[in-house]
């Protein structure tokens, strides 16, 4: 009976440890910036959802397109209605993994340069992407950051000829995530 109790206790502890191996946020920050000679376009979204599996390095993101905030209301309206068609394509997603996850030591404070690769879906189009990033460990806190370009044409986002010179063909995307342990 004592052996069964020890085995059950070990299984329960292992289950608890496995639960603590996932990290989550609903408050991730994603921004994009586009520069042209006529006008700069910048938007911020502080409601990105992300999950990080600390055992495998797999990560997923979901971003509501309508949650991007612009300095000018008209830009935001055109972005949602004319370009991103956010009623038809309400979110952007990423499903992938940190390629060099074995280099990240979650029990040791530090900044770990990594490469993230996976499938990004924007405007109903999925592309395989790879981007540099940094995983930062400080105490029990884990954060992730990345900056990478996205070509608008890769996601079938049509820019009308009349404003084509006002919108860059490539936008710079910046991601900053502070993860919390996922508790069940």
TrEMBL record:
Checking PANTHER family in the record gives:
PROTEIN YCEI
Pfam families hit by this protein: YceI
Q: Which residues form the Lipid/polyisoprenoid-binding YceI-like domain?
A: 23-180
Q: Which UniProt keywords apply?
A: Signal
Q: Where is the signal peptide?
A: 1-19
Highest taxon in the source lineage: Bacteria
Which SUPFAM superfamilies does its entry note? YceI-like
Question: What species is this protein from?
Answer: Phaeodactylibacter xiamenensis
User: What is this protein's name?
Assistant: Polyisoprenoid-binding protein
């Amino acid at each position: 009976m004592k052996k069964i109790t020890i085995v059950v206790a070990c299984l329960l502890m292992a289950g608890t440890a496995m639960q603590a191996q996932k990290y989550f946020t609903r408050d991730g920050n994603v921004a994009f910036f586009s520069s042209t000679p006529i006008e700069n376009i910048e938007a911020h979204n502080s409601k990105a959802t992300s999950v990080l599996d600390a055992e495998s390095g797999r990560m997923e993101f979901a971003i509501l397109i309508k949650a991007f905030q612009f300095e000018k209301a008209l830009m935001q309206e055109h972005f949602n209605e004319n370009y991103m068609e956010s009623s038809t394509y309400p979110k952007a997603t990423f499903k992938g993994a940190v390629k060099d996850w074995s280099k990240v030591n979650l029990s040791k404070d530090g900044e770990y340069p990594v490469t993230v690769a996976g499938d990004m879906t924007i405007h109903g189009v999925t592309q395989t992407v790879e981007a540099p990033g940094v995983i930062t460990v400080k105490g029990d806190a884990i954060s992730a950051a990345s900056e990478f370009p996205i070509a608008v044409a890769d996601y079938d986002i049509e820019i009308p000829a009349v404003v084509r010179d006002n919108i860059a063909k490539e936008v710079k995307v910046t991601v900053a995530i502070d993860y919390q342990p996922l508790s069940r």
